[in-house]
Amino acid sequence: MKKKKSDGLIGEQKNLDKDIRKTLSGNFLELENGTVHYQIGGSTEGEPIVLVPGFSAPMFIWDPTYNYLIKQGFRVLRYDLFGRGLSDRPKIKYTEELFDRQLHQLIEKLQFYKHNRKITVIGLSLGGIITVNFTDNHPEFVKRLVLIDPAGFPTGKKLIPGIMKIPFLNKIIFKYFGSKRLVSKLSNDFLHPEKFPQFIISYKEQMQYRGFLRAILSTMLKIDMESAQSTYERVGKTNIPILLIWGELDETIPYHVHQQVRDAIPQIEFYSIQKAKHLPHYEQSDQVNEILLKFLRKN
């Protein structure tokens, strides 16, 4: 039997198809650009909240937040971005428009909102850009916005090496070193990575499916992670309540960037989290969950 082509990417040995998905947990929904893996929990009468993940991690990155909010009576939706987790890896450009369309269509097709169509959107890292764009493009859906260590502003560090912008060469580099690089950087998102040994194991599961590295590379090249200031400013002029949470020791999107977000959205409610890096909701979940609940209850 002739072997299927693997896209030439190290570690990617399986296709995400209907047969594979029959063996996997979660729910799947067909959208315009492909099948999306998602999970909904909580009371059908609960207030709707959507959790949007970051640059490369699947929806499990929201485990502490998802489980907590369900216990507090909310209706919670989380999902894998295209190219990540168990969602399709369509062979298209991974742009802000793609992720905005994915979120919009997912909410509409699931009718994941109450009678007034209002939801709370919570975005982490790249998910910050996605949720701010969504709020800017579809304000009629958004009751509240929560940002956790969001991207979108200059960081003072080079996020993408110049060599990765060279066509063809970047694909070769990513083919042989992309997987190792992504996994090695995960530890930098935690102050104490040794406390979360399952995290990397869970992260690596998505890497066995063809198209993962292609999607990550396209996202790197097609989304400017430092140029969303004008979008933040427009959202800041609305009357939507907005919460900002940041790990004080974040090295991925440095803590000092929080001031740029606060300048763009002067009325934003801000909390810094000590003893946490890029994933404060995961590393200091009790503290962040308490802040979230207080914000949700009073707005």
UniProtKB/TrEMBL annotation:
The keyword Protein transport does not apply. This is Alpha/beta fold hydrolase. Coiled coil: none annotated. Residues 48-283 form the AB hydrolase-1 domain. It comes from Promethearchaeum syntrophicum. SUPFAM superfamilies: alpha/beta-Hydrolases. It holds the Pfam family Abhydrolase_1. Keywords: Hydrolase. GO terms for molecular function: aminopeptidase activity.
